[in-house]
Amino acid sequence: MESNAVLLESKSSPINLLNEMHQLRLLGHLCDVTVSVEYQGVRAEFVAHKAVLAATSKFFKEVFLNEKGVDGPRTNVFLNEVQVADFASFLEFVYTAKVEVEEDRVQRMLEIAEKLKCLDLSETCFQLKKQMLESVLLELQNFSESQNSEEESATQPGVLLESKAAAVAEADQADCPVDPPDSPEDRPSNGVSPEMPATKPKEKM
């Protein structure tokens, strides 16, 4: 009798794999490529693993697949016009899927992602720039609304004074009516007009 197939899937395996490869790189173990970067006279070398760089960057994938032969135990790759700090952040991202950078470096990280054809980093930078832009637009909108409310509150006292004057004028008119009340509703509550005395003398039979 044939049994049903079941799926064995680990949620933590990809993270553990990245963490282990990151530790191996930091310790310099099993590294088979040295990347030399130079920018305006500042130069630095980074050791890494070909498999990781090729899996995360189409640029490195093309370099490694097209290399004729290896001179030594490690392949050497030279990158010009790439800042040392930016490539260090790039390496941290491809080995850990995250990196912390200053806001003003996000655009530079996007440029290095496009230069090295790293789609994951490019999308991450693009999304972050979009969030930053939306945040700035929201702040501008809030500032504009607060300015408008301040302008409205500045003009409000004049409107209040006008409404108060109108209310006073209406009250004066109510206290001094031009025409005497004709309808019974307008007369005093005791039903006797003001000209008549309160008690009427009885007529003699």
Automatic annotation (TrEMBL):
SUPFAM superfamilies associated with the record: POZ domain
The record's region (Disordered) falls at 147-205
What residues does the BTB domain cover?
Answer: 31-103
MF terms (GO), sorted A to Z: DNA-binding transcription factor activity, RNA polymerase II-specific; RNA polymerase II cis-regulatory region sequence-specific DNA binding
The UniProt entry, under InterPro entries, shows: BTB/POZ_dom, SKP1/BTB/POZ_sf, ZnFinger_BTB_dom_contain
* Entry-linked Pfam families: BTB
Q: Which domain of life is it from?
A: Eukaryota
What name has this protein been given in UniProt? GZF1 protein
